[in-house]
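2 proteins. here.
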Amino acid sequence: MAEQIIEAVDSVEKVRLVNSGTEATMSAIRVARGATGRDKIVKFAGNYHGHVDSLLVAAGSAAATLGVPDSPGVTAGAGQDTIVLSYNNCEELVAAFTEYSGQIAAVILEPVVGNMGCVPATPEFMACLRSETEKDGAILIFDEVMTGFRLAFGGAQERYGIRPDMTTLGKIVGGGMPLGAYGGRADIMDQVLPAGKVFQAGTLSGNPVAVAAGSATLRLLRDDPPYEQLEERAKQLAAGLDRGATAAGIPHQVQQVGSMITLFFNPDPVHDWQSADRCDREAFGRYFWGLINEGVYMPCSQFEALFFSRLHTEAMIDETIDAAAKVLKAIA
């Protein structure tokens, strides 16, 4: 399984298996701090990295929908070394590295956000991330729990041609079973026990049932890649949702990367949490329940990206487009 992950994700030279995406991000942050001897972490508003106390600050997805971006039970001390910046904002990133020069252990982000809707990083932002972290000696972590093996076999980093220092994986990597992984440069991963001093362990980490399911999934994705088909279906669905909302006269944006799509009830493009937060949540709620009544189950939050599988046929996509057009017309 480790060999398969290393083969698929070019930036990963060594990997450790854990039980979930949350464990993967938690462990990656600990390793980054241990490897650099620094405390501070940069994350971006609207990016969700699991229910790790220090990262459950300005999270997206369910936290945003429920209006609890900072969960009760997370102490002030847990987040005191977490710097929250605006996504896709190079100026803020440069300013943070200027202010906290030599103090930032890592920058963690979703390279295509799925937890404030589908929001891709711009090429300029990606280049800025790589440049600033390299200059300062900070570790660049791609949280590919959602994008890994979904946007390409090698994840978003393959699609965009950016090589992070560390990568976290989950969801698809377990083939439906509880499994996560974190990996990266060998010199960083060598900080983990027993080679190094950074502690990480778990009774069920790398358990044989989950690993067997994950290994079989990665073989299928390697030997019979679905990515071209997924891209075609995604463009079909994105175009159909756009037509339906336009015909209904509803201000909207449709954003799509690979098989990840969001219909934003927002007249302006969404490129960060500030713009996502201006979406019409009430309209989305009526859209969601209208589609439920039509037999279509969309993500239940405006801030959850829609994604689908190779088993969704062209006919199913057409049925979804027709149902969405009907509902959008009714709620306009």
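next one coming up
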Amino acid sequence: MLLYLIQGLTLGFSAGVSPGPLQAYFLSQTLKHGWKRTLPAAFAPLISDGPIILLVLWVLTQTPDWLRQGLQIAGGVFILYLAWGAFQTFRRPPEALTPDPAQGNRSLREATVMNLLNPNPYIFWSTILGPILIAGWQEAPTVGMSFILGFYVAMISIFMGFIALFGTARQLGPQVTKGLSGVSALALLGFGVYQIGAGVLLW
């Protein structure tokens, strides 16, 4: 069991620190609404990965090309939508940004949709995580669960750390916040264009 727990922690840490659109989204939302209202978004994989795991492990033996391509394009379009929101934040003066009490739930929903439309979790679960989980589950369900526990504890902890770090940047002043908002908008734009381009080329 300990071996599978360590594997889960290691892979979860790797997934958490790998740059991607989710981290850019965390930065954008934290600068706009603060770390407390963005923190729920760190738990998005717990919601989105359930259907992904079922799809990959129980329905698909390998993620079909058409699904990967469609997800790539749809995810890119959604990321461009988020990039537009980040750009609108960049254009507004910092004093015009007012906290929205309902933003915590909205951040969680948006991060969940982003993860569902991202082909990477499907590929990751079908090629790396899925086989390890199945092997552990065949030894004992508790062994498989220890792998899942380690993976999500590590990844979500990293995500929460990122959000807290971005929250400290928000305290450095309006000009720093404005500059970082621009960076997050550009990062989301880049990820969105890349995903759409990759999906079209694979079609």
